[in-house]
């Protein structure tokens, strides 16, 4: 197994750092999947994550000037590594004014992702910073749990409002209740509701717009005013929203009634899918 | 100053919680205070700080002090074979590499470069922590003199604390060190003050020997007051003698009393015998209590450091050669020893 990649462009480096920061906010431990064209940050829907799952994908050639990898075998040309997300984001944070950044898979007593940064410094000699991030290589037999999740057939698909606004609303709601109802319809309306014995609070977002539906039949059958809803744990939604630093290029929310809510975001060229299951 | 107009020194301690609030609000101090007078009233065991403010307002703070018998440490910066001087900013950029949970860092030097890296104890779970290192070239230092290639490991927290302190002065930081086990010094020499932090460093390998102990005793020039009956503290030999305020970094983290003497021997010894305690580093092996050969390794090193202040005043006076610098333990036995210079 081999992996080495290099970033020399400052903008690419900043973008990669932002992605890594976002992942660190969304998942404490995640899987990094390295394949010839892509990098994926994966969180699978185990009990440990509370049923939440995440799939983040980026095209390697948008970031790296050099990229070489050799997977476990020719037939399975992929590498799956488990790492603590914060370790990577912290290492990248020190690469603010780097001339070049190299990442490679190494084995120094135990497998590591070595991040090697060449920093610009005032004097002629450049400073070299190295971080050895310990990783666990995930064996082939566990790969089936880490595949791209299938996008469910949603009852309603709607564009999200400005995430910052949504986040501040959800933050305040969290003080009242942990149980949030998210509902939307095909008329561009999205509601966030919390209900307790003493109080019910609903925030209405209107005129959001709905993405074009995949099949014509579905759109005709469904009443545009009818809401599809999911009851979720508010903290999971808040964690998702807190991870989004900038407003995404595209943000779609898909709701399967009483089952799952699926967020599909595009940050420039990085796609992020986040699944929050309904409370049982 | 006492009645006969001779200058005597007061060695005392003041609580940080008492002093800090007095000088807390720098902006309002600068705006309102015209002058400040600090003097002691030994009859009431108080230090009096008076602010003469605008509009004829006079603010007086009375802070109680405690007499203290400091530890004595022999450390000559000029005899160290390695000296580096660097701007605090560069060190600060190295500090960000490490997490706040990092206990110790290692400084590795060769004539060609300097490397600061995270240091992990054997007992730690290596597979969970990130190992970071940064190489800095000689031309980034204001002064670079390496006599011997070496790697020293010391407490990260102390370095951070000292760095925060140095940011206020903008003066370069000098690092003086030799080989592992021998103490190292971080110093700042500004126009207004000189500060020296003496840190213990981890020794390379455990060695049980009685010879280092006897070596220490023979190196000392003068015996002085005993802090503990089974060890002796050396005399301070610095010639630059000024008003000294001394403090210990973290009294709460003080090693068990029995090992205090071992620490002073440690500081004075060339390479003190240290035993790496694997497993729970907080435990003190019962057998190490009274014998200098079995001094605790990491816990003591992390807990012990001294800081010396020298404030430059216009009428410099050379203090009594028996002046001591470091603070001692809070134990009651201190009261029996030594001569206090009181007002």
UniProtKB/TrEMBL annotation, chain A:
Pfam families: Hus1. It comes from the Eukaryota. InterPro entries: DNA_clamp_sf, HUS1, HUS1/Mec3. SUPFAM superfamilies: DNA clamp. Belongs to the HUS1 family. This is Checkpoint protein. It comes from Equus przewalskii (Przewalski's horse). The gene is HUS1.
From TrEMBL, chain B:
It comes from the Eukaryota. InterPro entries: Rad9, Rad9/Ddc1. Transmembrane segments: none annotated. Gene3D superfamilies: 3.70.10.10. Pfam families: Rad9. Coiled coil: none annotated. This is Cell cycle checkpoint control protein RAD9B isoform X7. It comes from Equus przewalskii. The lineage of its organism: Eukaryota, Metazoa, Chordata, Craniata, Vertebrata. The gene is RAD9B.
């Amino acid at each position: 197994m081999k992996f080495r990649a290099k970033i020399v462009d400052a903008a690419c480096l900043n973008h990669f750092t932002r992605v890594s920061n976002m992942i660190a906010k969304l998942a404490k431990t995640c899987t990094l999947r390295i394949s010839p064209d892509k990098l994926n940050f994966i969180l699978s829907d185990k009990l440990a994550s509370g049923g939440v799952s995440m799939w983040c994908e980026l095209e390697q050639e948008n970031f790296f000037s050099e990229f070489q990898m050799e997977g476990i075998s020719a037939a399975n040309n992929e590498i799956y590594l488990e790492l603590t997300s914060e370790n990577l984001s912290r290492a990248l944070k020190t690469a603010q004014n780097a001339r070049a950044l190299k990442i490679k898979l190494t084995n120094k007593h135990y497998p590591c992702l070595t991040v090697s940064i060449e920093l610009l410094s005032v004097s002629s000699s450049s400073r070299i910073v190295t971080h050895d991030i310990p990783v666990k290589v995930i064996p082939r037999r566990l790969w089936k749990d880490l595949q791209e999740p299938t996008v469910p057939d949603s009852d309603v698909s709607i564009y999200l409002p400005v995430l910052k606004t949504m986040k501040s609303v959800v933050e305040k709601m969290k003080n009242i209740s942990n149980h949030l109802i998210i509902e939307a319809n095909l008329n561009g309306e999205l509601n966030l509701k919390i209900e307790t014995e003493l109080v019910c609070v609903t925030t209405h977002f209107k005129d959001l717009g709905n993405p074009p539906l995949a099949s014509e039949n579905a759109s005709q059958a469904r009443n545009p005013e009818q809401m599809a809803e999911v009851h979720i744990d508010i903290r999971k939604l808040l964690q998702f929203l807190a991870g989004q630093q900038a407003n995404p290029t595209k943000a779609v929310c898909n709701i399967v009634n009483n089952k799952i809510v699926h967020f599909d975001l595009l940050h420039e060229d990085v796609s992020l899918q986040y699944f929050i299951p309904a409370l049982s | 100053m006492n009645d006969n107009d001779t200058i005597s020194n007061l060695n005392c301690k003041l609580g940080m919680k008492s002093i800090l609030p007095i000088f807390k609000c720098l902006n309002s101090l600068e705006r309102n205070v015209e002058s400040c007078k600090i003097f002691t009233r030994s009859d009431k065991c108080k230090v009096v700080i008076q602010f003469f403010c605008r509009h004829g307002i006079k603010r007086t703070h009375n802070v109680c002090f405690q007499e203290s018998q400091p530890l004595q440490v022999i450390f000559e910066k000029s005899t160290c074979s390695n000296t580096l001087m660097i701007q605090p900013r560069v060190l600060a950029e190295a500090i960000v590499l490490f997490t706040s949970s990092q206990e110790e860092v290692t400084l590795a030097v060769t004539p060609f470069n300097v490397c600061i890296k995270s240091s992990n104890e054997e007992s730690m779970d290596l597979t969970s922590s990130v190992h970071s290192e940064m190489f800095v070239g000689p031309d980034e230092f204001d002064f670079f003199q390496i006599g011997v290639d070496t790697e020293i490991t010391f407490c990260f927290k102390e370095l951070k604390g000292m760095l925060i302190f140095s940011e206020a002065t903008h003066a370069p930081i000098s690092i003086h060190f030799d080989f592992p086990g021998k103490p190292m010094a971080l110093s700042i020499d500004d126009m207004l003050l000189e500060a020296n932090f003496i840190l213990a460093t981890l020794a390379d390998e455990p060695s049980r020997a009685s010879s280092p102990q006897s070596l220490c005793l023979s190196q000392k020039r003068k015996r002085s007051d005993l802090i503990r009956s089974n060890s002796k503290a050396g005399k301070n030999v610095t010639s630059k003698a000024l008003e000294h305020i001394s403090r210990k970094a973290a009294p709460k983290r003080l090693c068990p009393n029995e090992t205090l003497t071992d620490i002073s021997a440690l500081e004075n010894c060339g390479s003190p015998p240290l035993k790496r305690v694997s497993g729970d580093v907080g435990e003190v092996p019962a057998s190490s209590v009274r014998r200098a050969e079995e001094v605790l390794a990491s816990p003591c090193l992390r807990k012990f450091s001294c800081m010396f202040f020298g404030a430059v005043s216009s009428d410099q006076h050379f203090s009594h050669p028996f002046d001591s610098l470091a603070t001692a333990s809070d134990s009651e036995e201190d009261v029996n020893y030594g001569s206090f210079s009181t007002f």
